[in-house]
Amino acid sequence: MGTAADGIEMLRTGLVEPAMALGWQVAVTLTPNAGRWLRANGELDRLETLTGLPVRDTPRLPTEPRPHPVADCYVVAPASANYVAKLATGVSDNQALTQVSEALGTIGVPVVVFPRVNAAHARHPAWQGHLETLRKANVDLVYGPDVWPLYEPREGPEVRELPWPTIMESIQQVAPNASRRSD
Ligand SMILES: Cc1cc2nc3c(=O)[nH]c(=O)nc-3n(C[C@H](O)[C@H](O)[C@H](O)COP(=O)(O)O)c2cc1C
What we know:
mainly alpha, Rossmann fold, 3-stranded parallel β-sheet, 8 helices, 3 strands, 7% strand
């Protein structure tokens, strides 16, 4: 899953390609905003070619088949502050939220979330509660000063690589048996 946060443009090289190199099957779902971003820069097409699956950013029609295989691990990277707030409060108004919200209540389906936020997001009065809710639901949060130091808005480094290797390590810890491609 990817959302409209800085760094989403590196989803393919940062996460999808390394995961596929381990033999995992990867299916990409984006929020509608992230879909707009990656369609505009050509990454959405590249992700579809790479994964061999459609990138989802809208829900299917009731008459359409499910375009993705059943997932045995969900990863949201990067997760916007908006996405984290909606996930924690049970708002599922897009495909990327619907799938992960269901996974929160599904024993045995691990969820890894990397909140790509700044210091102002983290000072929102509801923020700590959102993180606690997600932790209680066994979400593996890639979060903290060692992984992602928080800067004030517009004050961080100009170019900031997302912590893709740490995200990959978290996935391997929570889902050591993530599905291998059958081919
Ligand atoms: C260029 C740009 C970069 C953004 N980067 C972030 C970000 O890193 N983290 C974040 O929480 N929001 C960021 N936002 C704001 C989100 O895009 C906005 O809250 C949006 O509603 C999130 O939609 P989504 O959660 O449905 O993907 C950014 C917005 C723009 C225009």
